[in-house]
Amino acid sequence: MKTYSNPVYAYQRSPDQDGAPARHPVVVVGAGPVGLAVAIDLAQQGVRVVVLDDDQTVSVGSRAICWAKRTLEIFDRLGCGEPVVSKGVSWNVGKVFHQNELVFQFDLLPEHGHRRAAFVNLQQYYVEEYLVERIGELPSAELRWMNRVVGVAPQADGAALRIETPEGYYTLNCDWLIVADGARSPVRAMMGLEAEGQVFRDRFLIADIRMKSDFPPERWFWFDPPFHPNQSALLHRQADDVWRVDFQLGWNADPDEERKPERILPRLAAMLGHDADFEVEWASVYTFQCRRMQQFRHGRVLFAGDAAHLVSPFGARGANSGVQDADNLAWKLAFVIDGRAPERLLDSYDVERIAAADENILNSTRATDFITPKSKLSRTFRSAVLALARHHAFARRLVNSGRLSLPAVLTASPLNTPDRDHFAGAMLPGAPAADAPVEGPGSKWFVDHLGGAFVLLVFGDAVPAADAVTLVYGTLPFRIVQVRSAAAGARDDSSEEITDGAGLLAKRYDGRPGTCYLFRPDQHVCARWRAFDAVAVRAALARATGNA
Fold it and tell me: Domain 446-544, CATH 3.30.930.10 — does that match?
């Protein structure tokens, strides 16, 4: 590639390769976005973690490119959101075409008052590079390149790993093993586990091309375009004037032939115009699959990302869902390791993230079925929907060019405390936090005041200073954030104060005076009340940590 040179990270011999097998609290297999994210999250909480990767560079080819708003907020909490956003291409608008006519367009973030765009497009190798840089800043994390896991033996108190390096083999023991080694997951195979699901009988050419263009930073999707009749195509922009192009090829396409320049270049010229000046950076042919493991937790071995579940790229649900796995798992594992929660708290990782994976698989399957109809009837249905969608809003809801990634709302989580009061809006227990502009110490955005601890958000003066101390549940990290109106005066107590000058926070949370929200360390709501009640808050904390 001419726009990017992969960094080469040096193999370094570890002291663990000498003497008796060492033991570590946590080992992560795989230095992709998911493995690096969970390792950074654990290290920020003071948990010592070792990351093993069988390569010595970041991903080759851009692979995942669409990073959703929720993922960007997680990256912000991990200390690497700003470089991703600064380098990437922010976008909110998507357009759908049928043949050569615009059917409709949509805005994924129509309301104002959010720090991050709906999506930022950035090649995966950049994201991994920023995550590698961040992990190098954390003394509790160690990243070992050219360390290939060739054997794994799960044990009641952890796992034993056999590792191959350029200097030979060694054995490593750990209390907890996190497996994030990708869709083909060698560790999953070593353990005799499978990911079950569906393979779609179609193939797609995915190419990154470099070109100067006036196309706006939007997602453009075509059904049956004149430059690629009876198939579909997708175009959107990345950093460095690189554009992602997807072409549906059909099941009978030969993957080896379709990768050749003499097959790729005419397709691109037909799409972009024969006078277009472009060059191919990277290309691959994919067969889409939707699969998942039956369980993500196997004792003290936990699977995350593509190793646990796999979806087709339409909708940008793969990498984003994997980063949310990391976000969900890290705080729970840290609490268990530190003795703040029982081991059964990790069962909720299975419950919550399997539900999220099933939601992603359902959306991905529906999108792929709409994009690649396999019968005359389904193709007729799609054509009718696209024709109606040009003039009728009801039909646009039926058009499926890939339902774009949204964070999972964990409504069925056993960690939630059911509502006892009436609330309006979407911030029910299980929902990820909605951002809003605020004024206060350290940040001008609400979600930056969450994360890393349980947070009680209080609208108004509902929490007496004396009660703030009694709320601490043992050694549980806990903070109180009070929302003041623009006209309210300052108050001297133990809480952190923010000002909701624009009133958007109160609007999004139906935050009347006295309203309280309890947030988990991963910024999800787990309880809410119309009035402060110290006993109710302590009970909700116990439930949310598996101590109930």
Answer: no
